[in-house]
Amino acid sequence: MKRDMDLIRKILLNIDACEHNDAISGMQIDRYSHQEIAYHVMLLNEAGIIKAKIVCDEGSKIPQEYVIYSITREGYAFLDAFADERLWKKATKVIGDIGDAPIHLVIPLFMELIKAHVI
Q1: Four-residue CA torsion sign, 30, 105, 58, 66
Q2: What is the largest CA-CA distance in the chain?
Q3: Rg (CA), the chain
Q4: CB 107 within 8 A of CB 90
Q5: Number of structural domains, the chain?
Q6: What is the pTM of this model?
Q7: Which of 35, 42, 78, 88 is deepest in the core (most CB within 10 A)?
Q8: pLDDT score, position 57
């Protein structure tokens, strides 16, 4: 499955919109399947952007279920920088297609664009 930075941003915005005391599972986002969302939740968790529990079938690395507990400090920094749709579109245009770079490398690159006032 290919990483979708727009979905990553939407997941973070959805988490932020929820009550902070509530764990989140079964999130629904228009035009995305449960499997796509679960995969991206797993990526965010692995990158330290959120704290979540990921459940995979035995012997599989494909996430089936998840429970999101919170956004980390790094996740809030990303969200604060790119909550504005205009900035988000500019950043994705500057970066373009970055292929299969790991998310833990992509997010700092987005943050550097803000710091350097490239966007």
Answers
A1: negative
A2: 46
A3: 14
A4: no
A5: 1
A6: 0.84
A7: 78
A8: 87
CATH number for position 46: 1.10.10
Low-confidence spans in the chain with pLDDT less than 70:
20-21, 96-101, 114, 117-119
Tokens (6 digits) for 93: 């245009």
Please give the pLDDT value at position 32.
97
All residues at 6 or more sequence positions from 5 whose CB lies less than 8 Å from its CB, including other chains: 92, 106
105: tokens are 């490398």
Tokens of 52: 């979540």
Taking a C-beta distance cutoff of 8 angstroms, is the pair 107, 47 a contact? yes
Angle in degrees, 0-180, between the axes of helices 103-115 and 85-95, rounded to the nearest 10: 110
Q: Is the CB of residue 58 less than 8 Å from the CB of residue 79?
A: no
pLDDT of residue 101: 67
Instruction: From 80, 73, 13, select the one nearest 24 (Cα to Cα).
Output: 13
